[in-house]
Amino acid sequence: MPETETFRIPKHRRHVPAARQSVSKTLADWGITDELADDVTLAANELVTNAVTHCRVSCAQIKVTLTLREPYLFLEVHDPDRDRIPEPRDSAPDAEGGRGLALVGLLAHGWGHGQLPYTKCVWARFMLPERPERPGHVPAAL
């Protein structure tokens, strides 16, 4: 059974750090540290920032879900502006923004988006490191 953690924040930039802290805490609780935790936290920061910046629904909430489903960790960010689909764009070297999705693409082992009945979801998938076999452990495939 996959492990899942979901939380919501109000659609406002001042709540992005709270989302980042919640992601970081969840990963630490799951024993995910080091580079993977940094990558997932940075990707979450970018996707949540995009959601609060570009969602045109007032008084909205942004939902963030982390799911461990071996061999992946999934990050999902939902917002209620279902018809405003994220588009990666080329940014000028001196531009202050516009690189978030490109960064997520570099950090994750895949990303995409989907439209649900009342929301859209932008997701990223991260490969979990292989865990050493425990002595006497029989793999489930056998």
| CATH fold-level label | Heat Shock Protein 90
How large, in whole angstroms, is the Cα Rg? 16 Å
Strand content: 25-35%
Distance between the termini: 19 Å
- In the sheet with the most strands, the strands line up as 1-2-3-5-4
Q: What's the pLDDT, averaged over the residues? A: 88
So, CATH architecture?
Answer: 2-Layer Sandwich
Q: Please give the domain count.
A: 1
Shape annotation? globular
Could you walk me through the main structural features you see in this protein, from its secondary elements to its overall organization?
30% of the residues lie in helices and 27% in strands. The protein has helices spanning 16-29, 34-54, 100-107; strands at residues 3-10, 61-69, 72-79, 111-115, 120-127. Helix 1 (16-29) packs antiparallel against helix 2 and helix 2 packs antiparallel against helix 3 (100-107). It has a single domain, classed as Histidine kinase-like ATPase, C-terminal domain (Heat Shock Protein 90), CATH 3.30.565. The two termini are 19 Å apart. Strand 4 and strand 5 (120-127) form a beta hairpin. The longest helix is centred in the N-terminal third of the chain and has 21 residues, at 34-54. By secondary structure, the chain is an alpha+beta fold. It has a five-stranded antiparallel sheet. The chain is built from three helices and five strands.
